[in-house]
TrEMBL record:
Cofactor: [4Fe-4S] cluster
Family per record: Belongs to the Nth/MutY family.
Enzyme Commission code: 3.2.2.31
GO molecular function, one term: adenine/guanine mispair binding
Protein name, as recorded: Adenine DNA glycosylase
Record-linked Pfam families: EndIII_4Fe-2S, HhH-GPD
The HhH-GPD domain, residue ranges: 52-220
Keyword Iron attached: yes
Gene Ontology CC, one term: nucleus
Amino acid sequence: MNRHRFSTEEISIFRRSLLAWYDIHKRKLPWRDWHDIDTNIVAYRVLVSELMLQQTQVATVIRYYETWMKQWPNIKSLAEASEDDILKCWAGIIIDSIFYWSYFFHLGLGYYNRARNLYKCAQLIINEYNGEFPNELETMINRLPGVGRYTAGAVSSIAFNQANPILDGNVIRVLSRMRCIGSDLKKKSTTDFLWSLATDVVCPERPGDFNQSLMELGATVCTPQKPKCNECPVQNQCLAYQQQKEIESILDIEQCSANCSFCLKSSDVDTNRSLVEHYPRKKSKTKQREETSFILIIYRLTPKLEFLMIKQKQSNLLSGLWSFLEISSSKNHLDQMNEQKRKTYIIEEIQQMPTIDTIPSINNIKLAGQCRHLFSHIDKQYIIYYTHCEQNDVLIPSTSMQWFNEEQVQTSAISTAMKKVFNVALPQIKLKTSNGKKNGTIDNYFKKKNSKV
Ligand code: SF4
């Protein structure tokens, strides 16, 4: 018997122990509150929660999920919404005075493709499935945008009671530790093996609860650091725990034959960490690409302060979101330019932008400051400039270009990166306007703003 697999007897004890623990210890989460509800709505709720939970912590997701469900409680209402409203909700913005102020501390859920995919899923289900959530695993994977094997497994097991497995970070951690899988997670053979383990253990009688109990164990007990093994309901079946207890020498780690591809290698052991924490073997981090962009914020007084914003194209990283004018550069390029050359470069690039039909005469741009934002794969530095647009300059608003007042900027679908940019530039722009002149200094501006909050 391969020690990395569960025996039939172990599977049955594992299911029983884990489900009994889950029935008592599961956290009360809003997306778990679905008893006596139509399966179509349960599937929708699981889909929304699972997509929100990708890359985002449970504690953060709760508020977004509840806000989302208030606005779009079912597939039909979501399909009829506007993409702009959906992106706003994803960005943590809603027209509600309490939420408006909390916006300043909320960074949004990020990874906006998840929101767009939810929207596309709702439209597809309404148009092609007559509003009925498809219940076959393969259909979900092949037809629903943004739905992969993991999400389809969660929806089919939780909403439709089908014995399909799931494998997310929490489940990988629990299974790797229980079966001492110490091979590289980047290898297909490792993930294939973990999927096969997840398939072996899923409980046919309560697949949804079982899958959630696995995730719950990984999230609350079998945590990446300092797992609470003494509180673990499956401790007796956990090979990593037993290995940690019994081990006399790190040379004993490779317990299978020397050429077992799943065992952790002795050379991988770091004696400063507990043994269980070595599973799963960490993926080597891919370094984020460094990028630099110039931002130009064009403002005008009508007499209200307004800012020019452009809707990002579909192919763009932040497609569908509103943004200030952005010009890409590189570190080398930046280093070669002095301040005056940078300004000339920005003006020339703006004049050539195809999105702007009628360009205001830009000739006096000022540096506001810099900020940095980390995207999943990009470490981005923004160098922010601003300039005033004269009343006589004509800029015709269109679907892809609009003037927004300050409140509209704060409550529109803009990315977290652009919120940071705006917050750097706004105090300086205010100082340039009549509002700013009255107050005199940036410090005074902030004093006044803070006293309002
Ligand atoms: Fe995780 Fe510890 Fe439980 Fe093993 S005994 S599954 S390492 S919490």
